[in-house]
Amino acid sequence: MKIRAVTSLEKDSVHQVHCSAFPEEERELVANLAVGLLSEKTTPETISLVAEAEGAIVGHVAFSPVTVDGSDRPTYILAPLAVTPNHQKQRIGTQLVETGIQQLTQMGVDTLLVYGDPNYYSRFGFSEATAKPYLPPYELQYPFGWQGLVLSDRSPPTSPVRINCVAALQDPALW
Length: 175
Fold this sequence. Notes:
Layout: E1 2-5, H1 11-21, H2 24-39, E2 47-53, E3 56-68, E4 75-83, H3 92-106, E5 111-115, H4 118-121, H5 128-131, E6 134-135, E7 146-150, E8 161-164
Parallel strand pairs: 4-5, 6-8
Antiparallel strand pairs: 1-2, 2-3, 3-4, 3-8, 5-7
Helix pairs in contact: 1-2
């Protein structure tokens, strides 16, 4: 298995990975988010990685920049992450996330946020306490899923700060 940057020609494969991994009621929303992030030009850049096995894309993750009101702290959000069902439970998602974390750390990113299953993301060191000062752009359906990971030697903010996401994440249905 190989982890690498996605190319613009692989939008259909990325869409299919997310459609296969998510339940019917979420699949189009999440797959469209993934493809939207591939199409959107951001500064700093969105990092989009795929896992390739036997010549096929079997996993995808995106890390997009967020701005923090009143701060120039480099902050990113992990969303979405998916692995095709027949390749799950093989540490592919873990490798995608770890590769992204390494890249973000090398870029000097302070904090990585995620809105997902605490049982999964806690293995990387994500915690609810780290994300608490970062106010998401919309009310969260599952507030316990809002987590953060400090990637630098800087502490998270001590008072609440609003984050602003890239356009692809500006859909209340995602939150």
